Inverse folding.
């Protein structure tokens, strides 16, 4: 049991920056992002992969940061909501969410935006069904989803117009 | 909650992974972790050691073989869903893989993990039974292959032995059968309440493989009449043999509905 809970040194590449951190193997990536790196835009809801609030991009793919140990992300390219937005302005997706009233409490919003970014990267012109399928893993308890779907359509259209 | 502490090993080659599993009978394999980590987060599972096989890249492949298709255990559900070779040769498997969880689960979860976890409501174990896949199991002592149907022994129980790792599946491909798939879940991405694969042979013989309606995949060979009423009646008779874990009457009704939908799907694919 001597090796249990020993700290391990890993390198996390997050939003274009590299961080050397010491982690216990049992620490979830979501917690390390929030507590070690201070990137609190990644939210933690259910810790069982259902709510989607902790979704980040790992090597370009949306994944649950609560269903990944930080030690497993050693060397991977991680992108969180902070990697998309700057401090002083909204991204086109965020602007569309605001314009379409696609959030109320905002708890699910960062992961909604991250998942939307991944969708639009793969599919710049998604149908409503494709939007709903892509976001089906992100729960929102406020909006009823309709405005979120409209916001994603809106963002896609703005991006296509350039 | 958070997982209890565990020792962690991350081999990069298969021989090291098998050696680690042989050395420590309490070691548990982690691949995608999309079923294991939720259980660890809730401390329902407390492995003393995890052997992480994500870096064993030799287990990540999709290949055409003489008999069909070989899939490495580390193939992610989303890869299975999108892969052109799988779409061409085993379209029913590509479709079913797209129904596993949500996008962010499918990009991480693995074929081997799903097959060995053996959740009764999961699509892929039933797909392997329906497609007559052979599962390849390796340990330091060697390799053995087991037909999928013999691998599943009941609720969350498989034939995998201590020290063994599921390394690949081999799926025969034949144009003599057409396959269909359907499932019913309350919300997209939820575990299915019932699902079915249907195989139709050119000579009219049919097979239904259900999931979510008992402790594991349930394959039945039966005649499926072309007449709609007679066919549903036949499916309802066979569904009476199923032993659902809960709400038996409702689940058996769903079993008929999904089998009928899968039958129509298989017919459409043949056309």
């Amino acid at each position: 049991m001597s090796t249990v809970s020993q700290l391990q040194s890993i390198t996390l590449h997050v939003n274009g920056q590299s961080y050397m951190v010491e982690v216990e193997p049992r620490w979830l990536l979501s917690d390390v992002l929030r507590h070690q790196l201070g990137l609190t835009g990644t939210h933690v809801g259910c810790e069982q992969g259902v709510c989607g609030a902790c979704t980040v991009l790992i090597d370009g793919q949306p994944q649950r940061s609560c269903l990944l140990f930080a030690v497993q992300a050693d060397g991977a390219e991680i992108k969180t909501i902070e990697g998309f937005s700057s401090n002083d302005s909204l991204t086109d997706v965020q602007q569309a969410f605001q314009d379409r009233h696609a959030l109320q409490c905002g708890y699910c919003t960062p992961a909604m935006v991250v998942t939307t970014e991944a969708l639009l990267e793969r599919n710049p012109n998604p149908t409503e069904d494709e939007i709903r399928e892509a976001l089906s893993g992100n729960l929102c308890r406020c909006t009823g989803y309709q405005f979120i779907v409209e916001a994603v359509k809106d963002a896609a259209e703005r991006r296509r117009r350039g | 909650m958070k997982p209890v502490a565990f020792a962690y090993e991350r081999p990069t080659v298969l021989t090291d992974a098998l050696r680690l599993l042989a050395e420590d009978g309490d070691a548990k394999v982690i691949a995608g972790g999309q079923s294991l980590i939720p259980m660890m987060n809730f401390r329902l599972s407390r492995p003393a050691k995890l052997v992480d096989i994500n870096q064993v890249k030799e287990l990540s492949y999709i290949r055409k073989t003489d008999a069909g298709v070989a899939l490495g255990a580390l193939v992610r559900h989303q890869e299975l869903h999108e892969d052109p070779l799988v779409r061409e040769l085993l379209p029913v498997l590509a479709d079913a893989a797209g129904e596993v969880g949500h996008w962010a689960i499918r990009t991480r979860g693995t074929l081997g993990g799903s097959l060995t976890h053996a959740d009764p409501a999961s699509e892929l174990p039933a797909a392997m039974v329906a497609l007559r896949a052979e599962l390849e199991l390796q340990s330091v002592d060697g390799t053995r292959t087991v037909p999928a149907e013999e691998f599943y022994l009941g609720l969350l129980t498989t034939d995998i032995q201590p020290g063994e790792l599921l390394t690949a599946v081999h799926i025969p491909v034949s144009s003599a059968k057409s396959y269909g798939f359907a499932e019913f879940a309350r919300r997209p991405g939820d575990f299915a309440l019932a699902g079915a694969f249907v195989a139709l042979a050119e000579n009219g013989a049919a097979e239904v493989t259900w999931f979510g309606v008992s402790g594991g995949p349930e394959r039945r060979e039966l005649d499926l009449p072309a007449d709609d009423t007679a066919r549903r009646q036949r499916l309802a008779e066979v569904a009476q043999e199923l032993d659902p874990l809960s709400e038996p009457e409702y689940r058996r009704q769903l079993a008929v509905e999904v089998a009928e939908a899968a039958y129509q799907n298989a017919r459409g694919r043949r056309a």
Summary: The mean pLDDT of chain B is 96. Chain B has three domains: 7-52, 57-172, 177-270. The longest strand of chain B covers residues 165-172.
